[in-house]
Amino acid sequence: AQTVTQSQPEMSVQEAETVTLSCTYDTSESNYYLFWYKQPPSRQMILVIRQEAYKQQNATENRFSVNFQKAAKSFSLKISDSQLGDTAMYFCAFMKLNNNDMRFGAGTRLTVKP
Amino acid sequence: DTGVSQDPRHKITKRGQNVTFRCDPISEHNRLYWYRQTLGQGPEFLTYFQNEAQLEKSRLLSDRFSAERPKGSFSTLEIQRTEQGDSAMYLCASRQGRTEAFFGQGTRLTVV
């Protein structure tokens, strides 16, 4: 079974600074998807960024970028120029290409301080 | 279509009662998922539908839990004889093809 590990239960960052959230996963698959989801307090989960394992290039979405290290099974999220609205729980998720259940890590609670 | 919709948003029930939750996915999405999320934890996979077929069920889904998606559109999740340990947020998500999953706002269940 696939497992996803987020080793940082809580993190904080000053507004406008950069923060990196860690995620590792365990799989024997070669093709899969990885995702970072954001869950603001009392609000629904929304996608931040996705990465296909067959793509070597790291995904980027505006202030959000990932460092995907396939051999190390690592998928970290970097948030640049942090904003107060980035305060949320962040979940790393793994999905096999030919299977359809998505497995989540336990999450990292990020607080952006003014 | 504004996204995945779940009803009710909150449910308080007495232990031993049955509850049913509804999820309306994004209309063109053929894949539908149910997850359970407890405080401070990530979502745990419960079950998955492709159209009306329930293709996978987690071992977390005991015999007291049942899910249906009768016409391949909306889905229901029923919990019979609720227990305090069932208190959690129940999340529904849908997707189409190889897109990411889109989540609803969840149903928060409190069993007293």
Q: Describe the global form of chain B.
A: globular
**Structural class, from helix and strand content of chain A?**
mainly beta
* Secondary-structure element series of chain A: EEEEEEEEEEEE
DSSP E strands of chain B, number: 11
Roughly what percent helix of chain B?
A: under 10%
Low-confidence segments of chain A: none
Fraction in helix of chain A:
under 10%
The largest sheet of chain B is: 7 strands, mixed
Q: Terminal Cα separation of chain A, in Å?
A: 41 Å
Estimated share of beta-strand residues of chain B: over 45%
Order of helices and strands of chain B: EEEEEEEEEEE
Structural class of chain B: mainly beta
Query: How many distinct helices of chain A?
Result: 0
Q: What is the total tally of β strands of chain A?
A: 12
Tell me the layout of helices and strands.
The complex is a heterodimer of chains A (114) and B (112).
Chain A: E1 3-5, E2 10-14, E3 19-21, E4 24-26, E5 32-39, E6 46-52, E7 60-61, E8 64-69, E9 74-79, E10 88-96, E11 102-104, E12 108-113
Parallel strand pairs in A: 2-12
Antiparallel strand pairs in A: 1-4, 3-9, 5-6, 5-10, 7-8, 8-9, 10-11, 10-12
Chain B: E1 5-7, E2 10-13, E3 19-24, E4 31-37, E5 44-50, E6 53-57, E7 65-68, E8 75-79, E9 88-95, E10 102-103, E11 107-111
Parallel strand pairs in B: 2-11
Antiparallel strand pairs in B: 1-3, 3-8, 4-5, 4-9, 5-6, 7-8, 9-10, 9-11
